């Protein structure tokens, strides 16, 4: 298996025609498997609230996709969740009785397994594959909520293994061979909170402690390092469970708006070498969409091309770029320009997202970039993107990123300029900002919103863009509100602007919008 996993659960559910287009490209690159990661964005028989208003795939859509992808030589593999990561499902009262805690299903509850069986039964009607990814990752507090209240404390390793056996039994009943993310099993077996800490497992102790199903494969996932030795160590750790090991790497689409092809390529090269040396033949790359699915999955086509070529033993970049142009119909280096929106690429933060959303009155300083000016950088990058050749059919994508750059030309420095003028009592400077810069910023964000919406509607179902409407619309209104506050201050209607009186603290950027956009409570 050489595959790609597309996240369709973080608001962005790709249109079926987009998936067809993607599958055609990846097949030419040499991939044979496409996983759709759907937490609850697929139809399940007799579960009307499952994926309600989330753009879920219908059975008819999945059946059609399965047949079309088969024509490309690509196997459509469901990638679902059967333990945790079901937060959106739990917003409905229908499922509260089977919620352990957080986003985790209640183990040993009859209704839980009724739901799971309906998942397998429905998917069996939709896809021809025997493979299925059943998730089970990051269930950190499993057994510590409603389960604890009802049954008391139970060894959580045994608890999760018992659940795994039930899930695998249901999968087999419907002709599926399951695979799981391995992090929970590694962490519980080693009694550690750090999946990547590594270590060795006593296999005899493991056999005595738990009974793992025979029909399950372990997926070791790692997107974060260029250290080949860590990959090697983790492969050996996963082998200790005595089941087939599959590797999952990352094509970074979850840092916000911009991709990180460069880091994806560097990490994948070391990972695939470790896989070859460790005898791991099956692998896939994940394209997640954390915090709103703001980055186009097409933005990481260079990383996908590179990984496929590296797997075949090709490291000559001129050959890789030539193949990219032949297959994608666009220029490799032009696509790589998209990485540059994040000045700190190679870091898992999202700098352009921080610059866009950090509040002009109540923000914070990113310590690595304190006091630096970025307007000129983004003005230049906007022109580079505008004039770049070799965009092929992806001009709409580049238009969106160019519009983001033009918004950042003004917005990236607006907070710093406002605070400086205010604290220096520069009323002329504040007047100019209110009359010019704030107006320009609002209009530039509005233009980015239009371009972003076009990109979204080209590739994805409309469901989920409401969040971008709320975020970008909220940003425009916030800028308008701050502009009005400045004007009131300049007219003498307010004695001060309290937020600008406070000293800025330095805080390392976190990716989620709710942390960047405000220091106040925006959601529980």
UniProtKB/TrEMBL annotation:
Endpoints of the signal sequence: none
Domain Glycoside Hydrolase 20C C-terminal: 334-510
Single GO term (MF): hexosaminidase activity
Record flagged with keyword Hydrolase: yes
Keyword list, A-Z: Hydrolase
Segments forming a coiled coil: none
Name of the featured protein: Glycosyl hydrolase family 20, catalytic domain
